[in-house]
Amino acid sequence: MRFFQKSIRHKLTVLLLISTIVPITSSIFITDSYTKESLKERAIEENTHLISEGKTNIINYLDTVKNASLTIYSNATLDSILTKGFADYQSESYIFTIMQIVSRSANDIYQVYLNISDNQSSYVLYQNNFKRGPIQYEPLANRVLAPYAVYTERTHRSHDYGIIQVPMGVPEMVFTIHRPFYRVPSNEQIGLLSIDVKLEALSKLTAQLYEKSNEDLYILDETGTIIYAGKETYLGAAPTEAWIKQLLDNPDDAGYMEWNQREFSGIMIYTKLSTSYLNWTLVKRIPYSHLYEYARNLTFINTIVAAIFLTIAMIAVLMVSLRLTRPLKQLISHINNIQAGQLEETIVINRTDEIGILAKRFRTMMHTINDLILREYKLNLANKTIQLEMLQAQINPHFMNNALQSIGNLALESQAPQVYTLISSLGQMMHYSMNTKETIVPLSMEIDYVNYYCMLQQQRFEDKLSFEFDICEQTSSFQVPKMIVQPIVENFFKHGFYITNKRVGVVKVRTRIEKARLLIIVEDNGIGVSDERLQQLRHKLTHLDESGERLGESIGLMNIMFRLRLYYGEQANLELGSIHPYGLQVILSIPIMGIDKGAL
User: Fold this and answer.
1) How high is the pLDDT of residue 75?
2) What separation in angstroms does the CA of 452 have from each of 218, 282, 307?
3) DSSP 552
């Protein structure tokens, strides 16, 4: 923060840079956000149409395979064989022919399997290799079958249905369409036709739907099991990713979903393939990293261009700021030399703008100041001379103390101990007041000084005067400015106490700690002050006059208040208040945090 507060050049540079950088960076940010949103909307629209076409192609292909499975009902000879259970060599020839027709009805059919319940025979056709064997495998054995329905088995590794083939088939990933067939028109099942379709068929049908290097494509069944995926490691698996469950729970037949998790961050566009024999969902996943690649490239180009222009702008800004602030730096250098005492410093700034006018006015001001300083110096020199003469005329404080001590000793020799006590009190007061080395003293010393003063006044007024001291022990060691209590007590004798009063004059001095503040309270039962005068005094205390002008009879209070503020700042206070029916209360309030707490 000080970096900006101390230099106009810094402020000007920052301001110009902000006025340049903020618009450019805001434009880049807005363009990037708009481009990303446009790319997302366009990708959703195009890919929704694309996977819709893919859905149509997949359903058409599967319908072709399903319709081929009905061939078994369309051949009267084969129907008679299946119905009557006849299975000689000629019957097997018919079965082979029908299975060939089915296997050639669509591309990428891996093998065809047929079993006949009546004679417990099963047949497999694999790449024109036709084999027969007993029924050893029932794909739908544990499933409740609806008459004349078709069933789809999820992706799995191909097998031989329990019939040994020569040569052995190479296992591949397939999905199977099963058609149980019945004795028409009854619901009696007499066999099963199974068609294994290579997963390559789905790969070919979906190849144009996505970019394998950047995007993902999945075909899910109704349980969330992956029928087809671009990555073979997921085939046939039932992952527990949350996005699969959320997508399948969506009631819409088509749409998109945004996903932002650790395993994937992007959009998913889906459509559901619902037919009488399957319930699949086709899902295309586009990661944000690929979707927003164009936006990133555009932002990168804009950033490079902006950086170039910002560099040029920064150079221009620095040149302008230097041009504007260099003369100010020169003026500051001249001012520093003047502050160091070189009052005759020559200010050489020849400009006609505002800075030149400022330098010219400053030169004029320095000439005026130099003249005033010379006059003030001569005046002070004369005053010091007078003060020196006055000091030479003063009595040496040590001589005064020695003289008082001699008088006190003489009083003791003359059997006058009371006189000795008074002389001793006066000597202590003079020693305390004349000690100019200490300006801050413990409160106990200040109270002792007040006590000596009161003893002298007590001797003067005898039974017409009474003093009370209530000093909290915890406050005795507090360091306070010298001579802040005695002037308040002295004011009682100047303005509040008259010997002709019938009542005894009472002065009370108390100290206490309250809310982290030291309170020194001086109370008397004098004539007090009027409300108007009290308000005047309070106003003077609030608006201290530090110019040295005479303050009349309130100069003692003003001096105390001024010194309290000098040591403790605005936290110190002096309060005045009237006491009913007679008297005045003065409270000195000093923050404990601002003084030496001593032993407290």
Assistant:
1) 65
2) 104, 106, 82
3) G
> Among positive and negative, which fits the CA dihedral 578, 580, 584, 589?
negative
Which residue do the tokens 């049908």 mark? 205
What whole-number distance in Å separates Cα of residue 539 and Cα of residue 545? Answer: 11
Quickly list DSSP for 399-468. HHHHHHHHHHHHHHHTT-HHHHHHHHHHHHHHHHHH-TT-SEEEHHHHHHHHHHHHHHHHHHHGGGEEEE
- DSSP conformation letters of 310-341: HHHHHHHHHHHHHHHHHHHHHHHHHHHHHHTT
Token code pair at residue 507: 């002065």
Which residues are within 8 A (CB) of 445 and not within 5 positions of it... i.e. 6 or more apart?
A: 432
Q: How far apart are CA 442 and CA 477, in angstroms?
A: 5
Q: Are the CB atoms for 138 and 74 separated by under 8 Å?
A: no
Residue 99, φ and ψ in degrees, nearest 5: -65, -30
Strand (E) or helix (H) holding 67: helix 8-68
pLDDT along the chain (600 residues), means of 10: 57 73 83 86 91 92 91 68 59 84 92 86 88 85 84 89 74 91 84 92 90 89 86 63 85 90 89 89 91 83 84 79 73 74 69 73 77 66 50 48 59 62 69 69 89 82 85 89 86 73 82 91 86 85 59 68 81 87 88 56
The amino acid at 496: G
Structure tokens that stand for 286 in this block = 């586009």
- Length of the chain, in residues: 600
Q: How far apart are CA 66 and CA 73, in angstroms?
A: 13
Q: Report which secondary-structure segment, H or E, holds 155.
A: strand 151-157
CB atoms within 10 A of CB 55: 23
- For every residue of 161-226, which 3-state class applies, written as one string? CCCCCCCCCCCCEEEEEEEEEECCCCCCEEEEEEEEEEHHHHHHHHHHHCCCCCCEEEEECCCCCE
DSSP state for residue 493 in the 8-state scheme? I
CA dihedral of 361, 363, 365, 370, whole degrees rounded to 10? -170
Cα–Cα dist 505/466, whole Å: 6
Q: How far apart are CA 391 and CA 385, in angstroms?
A: 10
Where helices occur in 69-158 by DSSP H, the ranges are: 71-74, 76-84, 89-103
Q: Whole-angstrom Cα distance, residue 298 to residue 316?
A: 27
Helix and strand counts by DSSP (H, E) for the chain: 16, 18
CA dihedral (433, 436, 441, 447) in degrees, to 10, reads 0
Rounded to whole angstroms, how far apart are CA atoms 113 and 103?
A: 10
507 CB burial (10 A radius; 0-12, 13-18, 19+): buried
Tokens at 407, concatenated: 């008088």
Judge if the upstream peptide bond of residue 167 is cis by omega within 30 degrees of 0: yes
Rg (CA), the chain: 55
